Fold this protein.
Amino acid sequence: MNSFFNKIMSALMAFVVMFSTMSFTVDLHYCGDTMVDFSFFNAAESCGMDKIQETSDSENTSMSQKSCCSDEKLIIQGQDDLKDNFSTLTFEQQVFVASFVYSYINLFEGRTSKEFPYTDYSPQFVKRDVQVLHQTFLI
């Protein structure tokens, strides 16, 4: 069970590193205010309104109309400042990492003895029954 969990966590961490360092571009095509098409790999396909306005512009060159379509590119940059090794850690950082690892490993150590420290003590003496006195009962 523990090795299976370690394999899942290592695969998850590999995907996190891969997606945090990957850059990509999203190409969007709007016709008016509505998004018609988007693409991750190629240019977004046009809705065809650009071609209709080009033909009308060629017939009447004295008047130019503004296109209702627009293209937009979103460029998402990945992270490039990853450290390759940990040899450049300062002394304080090395002390912190060592103490964190030591305390984390000792956090999950189980109790080896079955001793209960409260067995030598007797329970408190109850002078009066407080629940009956205040008439508060658990239902």
Notes: Helices lie at 2-21, 49-59, 91-107, 130-134. The chain has a mean pLDDT of 79. The first strand starts at residue 24 and ends at 31. The longest helix spans residues 2-21.
